[in-house]
Amino acid sequence: MLGPPYNHTMEIPATFFLVGIPGLQSSHLWLAVSLSAMYTTALVGNSIIMMVICMDSTLREPMFCFLCILAAVDIVMASSVVPKMVSIFCSGHSSISFQACFTQMYFVHAATAVETGLLLAVAFDRYVAICKPLHYKSILTPRVMLGMSVTITIRAIISMTPLSWMISHLPFCGSHVVPHSYCEHMAVAKLACADPMPSCFYSLICTSIIVGSDVVFIAASYTLVLRAVFGLSSKNAQWKALSTCGSHVGVMALFYLPGMVSIYVAWLGQDSVPLHTQVLLADLYLVIPPTLNPIIYGLRTKQLRKRIMSLLMFFLFHHPSQGE
User: What number does CATH give the domain 13-317?
Assistant: First the structure.
């Protein structure tokens, strides 16, 4: 016989309680200080990137537009989780409302889906700039850039909205204690009184398809870039291209490796990997890229570095007189 439908799921918990990092409660204060420093760096760095690109009319190339959007997404991604983490680690204020929990989960999923698409867009930009330099402006027109940005956003919304709907409609009639420092999908799903496997399988398959396809296209782009670079006659030009692309690949590795390890460890290594290691991996996956992206792109992109230094020098040393 079929059991009753989900009508008694109406016992929606008013709040969940986030544990933080299980087993590392004694290190919570140190973690709060570290996270605060990283979050401040992410906010300041990404804000500077956005401000410089928006203010400087010479930075209107497609790559800088993509970097500006990437900086905004990084701020959203870090802001979705870090303030609450710091609150838990500092004061033990671990409660989060049902609605806030699933809102946080949705923003985390959507921001990461948009970020992987933007990293693919940056890789495509570098492919066109290095392999087809004479056609760069005719290929990456403003209309094409807008279309790519809208497509990336729509893909994230379409893929992540069903996931949030599925898990938010599960019944939670048992424990409301989430053994994590934010509302991570698997950690919350395991608290459900019904079978959470449909939403978990959807999450795994959807993430694997999106990230897998993006990584394949990124790898193909940089393979073609490397082939073109090694065909250049000038060693200086080779080094310049390799340096720029190397920093981009480093950024992508920082985003993809912790993220994919975190996802597959949660599925395959639950019993062999300590819970605090799983939680730390998931936390760092959302905090390290937003912190390091502006540093790497800001320091490794010559035009951007010069504009940032000019802006900083202006604010530090430009003191207009009273009469001005």
Answer: 1.20.1070.10
